[in-house]
Amino acid sequence: MSEKYFDNAATTPMTKPVIDEMTRQMTTSWGNASTGYSYGRQSKLVMDESRQVIAKSINASEDEIIFTSGGTESDNTAVIQTALTRQKLGKHIITTAIEHEAILKPLHYLESLGFEITYLPVDENGEISLTDFRNALREDTILVTIMMGNNEVGSRMPVHEIGEILKDHQAWFHTDAVQTYGLLPIDVKADHIDMLSTSAHKLNGPKMIGFLYRRQGINFPSFVRGGDQETKRRAGTENVPAIAAFAKAVSIDTPEEKQRRQERYFHFKQVIIQRLTDAGVDFEVNGRLDQNSLNHVLNLWIKGISTYVLQTDLDLAGFAVSGGSACTAGSIEPSHVLTAMFGKQSPRISESIRISFGIMNTEEDVKELADAIAEIVHKVKRVKGVEE
Fold first, then answer.
1. How many of the other CB atoms lie within 10 Å of CB of 35?
2. Is 296 among the domain residues?
3. Which residue, of 197, 218, 245, is where some domain finishes?
4. Does the keyword field hold Iron (predicted)?
5. Average pLDDT for residues 68-96, to the nearest whole number?
6. Per residue in 121-146, pLDDT tens?
7. Based on the domain organization, do 286 and 192 belong to the same domain?
8. pLDDT at residue 291, as a whole number
9. Strands 141-145 and 172-176: what pairing?
């Protein structure tokens, strides 16, 4: 893989220890964990040990962790099953306008079934107002689903404050932590979180594996119908090698390592900002540029340069960046996140790129990326000057 990969918010490369662990388990723990003979017992032991590691990482109990195929399934399960199970208590749900499509599309489906959804607006930093949230909360609200951190602009939501508000309310609180798990410390008990979604491939683990944290006392039927795996909470034969690899990735991300990476990524942001400024590039940051944002995500409005042109030219120069969420980057539709922040008519929507850092990036790579952006910007503006 190229060392100039800057789309880590979309996915991350598996590290060698994670690959080694997955490969080892594929040769030693390939039995069906639901069977009672030795092959199955070996797989079940590996899965139980992995569940312990993962539960500890968010201060949860082992029986509160449900392994899934990833963030989308976890989000869909939490949103749809909560709504269908609790609709006799009310049909009102609160979310934000900048959630991932794995939340928004299930909510649109629920709207077609008669549920009422409040989409909280965000300001130009991509942040909601707690006053707006309090005003939206009703007696018949049954679910609040608000992401921990935004995947496009890096804004962080007041999860702790929301949890405090909801701890004595009937609404269950779900947070999509796909973009933050493995990067920020998470304590589901301290934050009064009822459900939390993750995906391993965002923290250098394998794809198609994740988990849904579901607090004890939160009950609904399995979203995937079939066998009785995961104590009847998620049907389907468990992917034990991927689960073990996920746990390995989690064990590598110690609190000290998380802090080190956060400091490193914040420094990378400063390097790019300074280098573009020195090069005379006309740009602005979409969102915050401080420690109240996700340090690995940097969304830039490069004024006068289309996203498509800049992304394409950077690709030709050997740099992988994004025009937005990886799940919608191939769409002709504008970013719903930038639209919610700046309005449909803002030029930012078609002139912004997302840079996201990971463990493979070096400071030299970051400097080269900034220089490449500056070179492309000046080249495009020279061409436009000739044409005009």
1. 12
2. yes
3. 197
4. yes
5. 98
6. 999 999 999 999 999 999 999 999 99
7. no
8. 81
9. parallel
Active-site residue, selected from the candidate residues 26, 136, 327, 329: 327
Q: Which residues contact 91 (CB under 8 A, 6 or more apart)?
A: 83, 114, 115, 116, 140, 142
| C-alpha of 75 from chain center | 11
3-state SS assignment for residue 114: coil
331 inside domain? yes
Domain hosting residue 305, numbered range: 255-387
Provide the CA 233 distance to its chain's centre, in angstroms: 23
Three-state DSSP at 37 gives: coil
Does residue 161 carry a catalytic annotation?
no
Residues 259 and 158 placed together within one structural domain of the fold? no
CA distances (Å), origin 334, targets 82, 324, 347, 354: 30, 9, 11, 14
pTM of the model: 0.95
**Together in a domain, 187 and 271:** no
d(CA 201, CA 210): 8
Q: Kindly state the helix (H) or strand (E) to which residue 278 belongs, with its residue range.
A: helix 255-278
The Cβ-side half-sphere exposure at 299, using a 13 Å CA radius, reads 27
Question: Is residue 108 assigned to a domain?
Answer: yes
Could you give the strand order of the β-sheet that contains 172-176, starting from the edge strand earlier in sequence?
Answer: 65-68, 210-214, 195-197, 172-176, 141-145, 92-96, 116-120
- Would you say residue 11 lies in a domain? no
How many domains is the chain built from?
2
Q: Dump the DSSP string for 173-198.
A: EEEE-TTTBTTB---TTTTT-SEEE-
Structural contact between residues 347 and 335, judged by C-beta atoms closer than 8 angstroms = no
Q: Residue 75 is part of a domain; what is its CATH number?
A: 3.40.640.10
